[in-house]
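Reference record
================
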Amino acid sequence: ESTRDRALSLLMLYLSNEFKTQTIQEILFVAEDIKDKYWYAKALCALIPHLADMLKAQVLQKALAAIREINEYARADMLSALMPYLNDDVKKQALTVAHEIKEESAKVNALIALAPHFDDATKTQVLEDVLIAVHKINGFACGNALSALAPHFKDDVLKIRALSAAREIKDKHWRTIALCALTPHLNQELRTQALQ
């Protein structure tokens, strides 16, 4: 089925608009036959950029439903791939899918992938959710999470919380990586704290 998914993705790249319009329903019909939810979701995600708005909305709902049923670690990648094509309402649905992830490390990865695509208020809430979750994951994942999000911490309160989370990482290597990623985004007082 992975071969079928790849074939569908490649086919969309090479179809002219005229043929794309004629064959899109047939391709979606073939995609419906994919039994494995991961490959089904992947096929739908690959098709979405090529769909007209009304059909795109329907396929997005199917993709989100399929994403809910796949491996939690794969959800972050799928959700991230979808974000540029989502309107605000569907972005909130994607955020709900990310919050449903039970494995904290996978949830953090999903939230990190989604955060940059939201308005400032929602992004701040997502960043707060990540800062809560990083306390429950290991040094490697925590260090990576804080490093990835460092440029997005605009609020001083979030920066202080991120700095605190970084300083709590037990593994010296990952603590150093997180602190180095955060430092350029901190004011002088917080930089001093980071370097102590």
User: Anything to note?
Assistant: Residues 17-32 form the longest helix (16 residues). The radius of gyration is 20 Å.
